[in-house]
């Protein structure tokens, strides 16, 4: 398994070769996911996809860090909720309504 380079090397990459740093992030992430259990891999890939979407929204490195920090705080809040009050995670039920096309009438309405 690949090891993370020292901080100073990462800092230099971020300043001078951001594409190389991004390639390292993706390579190491894929390696970690590939070494996870088969049951966890789909969840980790979904999480990685979500992280990539958050990163894509960033306008600059500082904005990206703030977006990622906000995302992490939301995840930690949900984790704490799952530990401290798991019943609240399923408390809210959706009201599911049948789909009707605009302009179409239900047979019971036309009778």
Automatic annotation (TrEMBL):
Xref: Pfam families: DUF3135
Biased composition (Basic and acidic residues): 89-111
Organism domain of life: Bacteria
UniProt-annotated stretches for the region Disordered: 84-111
InterPro entries in the cross-refs: DUF3135
Protein's UniProt name: DUF3135 domain-containing protein
């Amino acid at each position: 398994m690949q090891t993370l380079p020292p901080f100073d090397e990462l800092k230099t990459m971020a300043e001078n070769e951001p594409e190389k740093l991004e390639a390292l992030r993706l390579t190491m992430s894929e390696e970690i996911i590939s070494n996870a259990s088969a049951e966890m891999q789909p969840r980790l890939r979904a999480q990685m996809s979500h992280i990539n979407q958050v990163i894509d929204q960033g306008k600059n490195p500082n904005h990206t860090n703030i977006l990622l920090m906000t995302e992490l705080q939301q995840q930690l809040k949900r984790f704490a909720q799952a530990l401290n009050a798991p019943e609240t995670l399923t408390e809210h039920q959706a009201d599911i309504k049948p789909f009707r096309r605009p302009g179409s009438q239900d047979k019971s309405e036309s009778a």
